[in-house]
Structure formats: C-alpha cells, structure tokens
Specification:
Layout: E1 2-6, H1 11-27, E2 32-38, H2 42-45, E3 51-57, H3 59-62, H4 70-81, E4 87-90, H5 95-103, E5 108-111, E6 127-129, H6 137-149, E7 171-175, H7 187-199, E8 203-208, H8 211-221, E9 226-230, H9 234-242, E10 246-250, H10 253-260, E11 265-269, H11 274-277, E12 284-288, H12 323-341
Parallel strand pairs: 1-2, 1-4, 2-3, 4-5, 5-6, 7-8, 7-10, 8-9, 10-11, 11-12
Helix pairs in contact: 1-6, 1-10, 7-8, 7-12
Length: 342
C-alpha cells in the first residue's frame, strides 16, 4: 500500500505526526509512506524508519515570488503526480496542504471542517474524519490515522526514533529560539542557568539560527564554558543533539525532537498549553506556569502590562521558573535515564 502524507511544517508539527506513522505501520506492515514536507525540514521527516521517500516543497520560499518559482513548482507537481497512491492523508488541515493533497493521484483523507485548523480545507477531501481538537497534537494525529486506516488508536507514544548508541557527551543544549516572543525565557535566566551547569561540570551548547539569536546566544554564554552553533545545517544540529546529555527548551521544534529521540528534556511552558502542544517523551519533565489567570494565553505576544522595571521577569508567566528549578528538573531526568542505561 502506497501512502502519501502531507504535513509540511513546522518542525514540532512533524514530530507530532511520527507516533501516528509508527502506529499505522504496526497495523499495516506493508504500507509504504512518502512524506511531503517543507524543504527546510526534510531531514526531520527522513529520520522516521517507516518513511521511504521525502518530497520537499518550498511554499515558504515560493510565495515570495510565485512567478519566478513557476519552473520549480511545475517540477514539484510532476514529481507529486508521478506515483498513484492508494491513500493520501493531509494531516495538517490547512488550505495550502489540502491543495497539495488534491494535486496528487489518489483518494484524499483529512479532518472534517470542525476538526481542521482551516475549515475550508475539508471541502477538498474525498473522505473526512472527525477528530477531537481539545487533545494533544500527537493524539490528534493518531486519531486521524486510526480513522483513515480503520483501527482504534491507543495511548502509547512511540516516535519510532532511536537515540545515538554512543555514550553521551557531558554537554547540555539550551534551546532558546522561538518565533513567539511570549515563549522566550528571559536572557538573564538562561545566563544564570548556563553558569550553574558549568559549575556542575557540563559544557553548554547554544544553537542560533539568525543574527538576533546569535546575539542572544552570546549573552546566554557570557563567561560560561560552551559553544555557539550558529546557523549550522539541520542535519549537523541533529547529530549534536543526539550526543547531548540533556536539553532545556522552550516550546520549540527542536525541543520536541529531543524528546522524541529519548534525550532528557526540561521543557518551559507559560503562554502555550502543554495539554495541546506539550513536549512529550520518556525522559521529559515540563515546568508549567499557572500562577496568573491569563496562563496559557496562547498568544504570540504577551499582553500583560510591562512596567519596564529591570528587576521584573518578563513575560511574567516565567516569574516562578528559576534556573535552580529548571536544573533540578533536568538533573532528575538525566539521573532517571542513566539508571535505564545501566
């Protein structure tokens, strides 16, 4: 059975789909999965052992100049239509993803209009499935796949990925980058955490993907011992991640990937809802803020009044998330993982 999966982005969304693929493959061992994904995240989709082929798409780049990208777009559609699929699943539920799914050859399945992120997408599917929106994204994906293939989804979460068999280096990666300002843990807190980890004998690794993130990474390291990974290829970053002892992460894609790889993770949550997009993994501990009535606001920008007082923590949902609390949470997960490896 040839199955085409359309879920193009973002990184965290791709990771959320992996347990659904693993479960579907266990019920249908002859299924062969092809995954359409944004070109920047092709290496993420290729990690899953049941994905035989990845078809990269460049919507984010093409929409800057659709006319100039016409040749690439035509080549993509030709590649998409070169194979006739037994099933096509749009598990993203957006108008753009439904258009990609319909461009391929085969019956298209997706969310019904009440379940999809963009209700218009449902009008382009041949088969529509009702999925509970008020559940974690991982279980939404699993429920959709179960409806498509006709089995009952279980609650097990198996990403299908394996951590490196090499002995982890004594290093911890700090994943500070996020597209939402409301999810950013204050720089001074990161700096204090880096120094604390140094005192415990750990090297600190801080990735950056832009000039702004590079400046923040420099501030985070300060005088601490560590490395900045500035705009390295995603494949190289994944290899660095595989060998880390642990990870501290805001709600961002690499944090979800680290958890999927079984790496100990301390996840910081304030503005986003961990019940819907919490980092899930066998060695994950979430530090969830709940001391303000606006948590979780689910907004990109914090609307809470900022007094401008440098002694205040902003966003205020992180007021009680101290470096010591974060380190204690991660240390417990590292200790628990070490016991499993013994």
């Amino acid at each position: 059975m040839k199955v085409l999966l359309v879920k193009t982005s973002s990184m965290g969304d791709l990771v959320h789909a992996m347990p659904a693929i693993t479960e579907a493959a266990s019920h249908l061992p002859k299924a062969r999965f092809t995954w359409v994904v944004e070109e920047a995240f092709a290496d993420i989709a290729a990690l899953h052992p049941n994905v035989e082929q990845v078809i990269p798409v460049a919507i984010r780049r093409w929409r800057k100049n659709w006319i100039g990208a016409s040749r690439e777009l035509s080549a993509f559609v030709a590649w998409l239509r070169a194979t006739k699929y037994d099933l096509i699943i749009d598990s993203q539920g957006l108008l753009k993803s439904s258009l990609i799914a319909r461009a391929a050859q085969g019956p298209v399945h997706g969310f019904d209009r009440r379940s999809a992120r963009e209700s218009l997408s449902a009008f382009l599917y041949h088969n529509k499935h009702r999925v509970d929106r008020e559940q974690h994204a991982v279980h939404r994906q699993k429920q959709l796949f179960a409806g498509v293939f006709g089995y009952i989804a279980d609650r097990e979460i198996n990403y299908g990925l394996e951590r490196s068999l090499a002995i982890p280096a004594k290093s911890i990666m700090l994943l500070h980058g996020t597209t939402w300002a409301s999810k950013e843990w204050p720089g001074a807190q990161w700096t204090a955490l880096a120094q604390l980890m140094n005192r415990q004998g750990y090297e600190v690794i801080v990735p950056s993907g832009s000039e702004m993130e590079y400046e923040r990474a420099q501030h985070i390291l300060g005088n601490a011992s560590g490395r900045i990974l500035d705009r390295v290829p995603l494949s190289d970053l994944i290899q660095e991640l595989r060998h880390c002892t642990g990870v501290v992460s805001v709600d961002t894609g690499l944090g979800h990937l680290a958890a999927a790889l079984g790496i100990p993770v301390a996840g910081l949550y304030g503005s986003t809802d961990p019940n819907l997009t919490g980092i899930l993994g066998p060695a994950t501990r979430l530090i969830v803020s709940d001391h303000l009535p606006c948590i979780p606001c689910r907004s990109r920008d914090c609307r809470y009044p900022n007094t401008g007082d440098s002694s205040n923590i902003f966003p205020p949902c992180y007021e009680q998330t101290t470096p010591e609390t974060v380190w204690q949470a991660l240390r417990l997960q590292i200790g628990s993982q070490d016991k499993k490896l013994d």
